[in-house]
Design goal:
By secondary structure, the chain is α/β, with parallel strands linked by helices. It has two domains: 2-52, no CATH class; 61-394 and 408-434, Metal-dependent hydrolases (TIM Barrel), CATH 3.20.20.140. The chain has 13 helices and 16 strands. The chain has helices at residues 35-44, 80-88, 108-118, 138-146, 168-181, 195-208, 212-219, 222-242, 261-273, 285-289, 311-322, 357-366, 372-386; strands at residues 2-10, 13-22, 25-31, 50-52, 57-60, 62-67, 92-97, 125-131, 151-154, 184-187, 252-255, 279-281, 403-413, 432-442, 445-446, 458-459. Strand 9, helix 5 (168-181) and strand 10 (184-187) form a beta-alpha-beta unit. The radius of gyration is 22 Å and the shape is globular. The model has no long low-confidence stretch (mean pLDDT 96).
């Protein structure tokens, strides 16, 4: 297949050009091509397909390192099929999914069931992040690692396995596993608030009736997120020092959805002390662009963990993205039933994110508020490099043809009713975007059309 008359993003620049794709791989790139160059490509074109891109822009497929694809006992909220279909129509060609499933993915047997459920039911490539087995059972950890999971995830607020992740001995034990097997530990950073403090906030809210999203922010405050980040870093450094580790043997830690400048600053200071630390973090589009001041008909649509923060935090984090200091983004795509979101206090946290991510972030690029380079690095290139995804994340010869083609159009409203996910709601409803996603390719196969069949692969970490 040839994609011609395109603009192609490569190495921080946009060039006019054409791509030759054979057997799902980018075989040849011709920049500023002449007619003679196209004739050479045509001779090498194995399937004889040609697509005139009409001057539209080709970008590497987005790699979303944080999502919840539900399925199994939560299939009413989302399935592998519907979730990855939503991703495939959004320019997202690889996703990592989290283990807070029902039942939770905390054993080798359950991870196998999880992976089997995905086979032949995924429209994009999927990597699996496991929970930690009960008791941090070492033999079970090895069995799970052998299945090819990307890493292990911990939730200090609501442990999947009844392990107390505020106990320094538990987190150190996990870091030693990461050190030995060089496998990432994904951390939801939040220190639990005391029940008394929560009760005080509930009473205050009932008396004063301030906005619900500000109340939710108080229940899961900035300083408790930062406290867990600090706790993690202290124990990370302790493991390195106590075991006299060489930097190649450092544990690998990834902080999920950093939402405030305090946590961000703690991580950046640690990396300034030692640039060889194997520490990464992601920020979500909603923590970059939204605050708890957002006006919604139903405030629970914006209920998420970590909460939408005060505007100073989103402004600060977006500015850091603009400066090129944010290396990774992830949606935390978390579908729920709309009916669940009606309950005032009992509504679950989370909302879908695949289908708004490129529309709201690339809109900032098209409107010159963010560079293409910083977007592509955080969305595609850095995830591929940091999580060792071979031949992905870049538009290069010899790399997988995981691509999406976009165009700038007049502003239009984001309409959740048209989402492919089962969760047809979003705090970005009524936002406008100038981004049109034209075509999406996974291994050179167009996946954003109604006739496409699931051809995604399960991505496994190389041992």
């Amino acid at each position: 297949m040839i994609l011609k008359n395109a603009k192609i993003y490569s190495k921080g620049l946009i060039h006019k050009g054409a791509l030759l794709i054979n057997n799902g791989i980018i075989s040849k790139i011709e920049f500023n091509h002449q007619e003679s160059d196209l004739k050479k490509l045509t001779k090498r074109n194995q399937d004889n397909k040609e697509i005139d891109c009409q001057g539209k822009l080709i970008l590497p497929g987005i790699i979303d390192i944080h999502s919840h694809l539900r399925d199994m006992d939560q299939s009413e909220k989302e399935t592998f099929l519907t979730g990855t279909r939503a991703a495939s129509f959004s320019g997202i060609t690889t996703v990592f999914c989290m283990p807070n499933t029902k039942p939770p993915a905390i054993s080798a047997e359950q991870v196998k069931v999880w992976m089997e459920k995905a086979k032949n039911n995924i429209n994009v490539n999927v990597g699996f992040i496991s929970g930690v087995p009960k008791g941090i059972d070492y033999n079970e950890v090895i069995k799970i690692i052998e299945l090819g999971v990307i890493g292990f995830k911990i939730y200090p607020l609501n442990s999947l396995n009844k392990i107390d992740w505020t106990d320094m001995l538990n987190i150190q034990k996990l870091f030693l596993i990461s050190h030995k097997f060089q496998i990432p530990i994904f951390i939801h950073p939040d220190w639990p608030l005391s029940e008394k403090k929560k009760a005080d906030f509930y009473q205050e809210f009932m008396l004063e009736k301030y906005p619900f999203l500000k109340f939710h922010n108080k229940l899961f405050p900035v300083h408790m997120e930062a406290k867990y980040v600090s706790f993690t870093l202290e124990n990370y450094f302790k493991i390195i020092t106590d075991n006299n580790l060489h930097h190649k043997d450092y544990p690998i830690v990834h902080f999920c959805h950093i939402s405030c400048k305090e946590s961000y600053t703690l991580i950046q200071k640690a990396l300034q002390i030692n640039s060889k630390l194997k520490i990464t973090f992601e920020i979500t589009p909603h923590h970059l662009l939204l605050s708890n001041e957002i006006q919604l008909n139903n405030p629970n649509i914006g209920k998420v963990l970590p909460p939408l923060r005060d505007k100073e935090h989103s402004s600060y984090l977006f500015n850091e993205l603009k400066q090129g200091h944010v290396n990774l983004m992830g949606t935390d795509h978390a579908p729920h039933n709309r009916e669940e979101k009606i309950e005032e206090f009992g509504a679950p946290s989370g909302f879908p994110g695949f289908e708004t991510y490129p529309l709201v972030i690339l809109d900032k690029v098209f409107k010159f508020q963010l560079s293409f380079e910083n977007f592509v690095k955080a969305a595609s290139e850095n995830p591929a490099e940091m999580f060792n995804l071979k031949n992905k994340g870049f538009i290069k010869e010899g790399y997988d043809a995981d691509l999406f083609i976009v165009d700038k159009v007049p502003d239009y409203k984001i309409t959740p009713q048209n989402f492919k996910t089962k969760a047809k709601f979003s705090p970005f409803e009524e936002f406008t975007t100038s981004v049109q996603i034209w075509k999406v390719f996974l291994g050179g196969i167009e996946v954003n059309n109604v006739k496409s069949i699931p051809n995604g692969k399960i991505i496994k970490r190389m041992l």
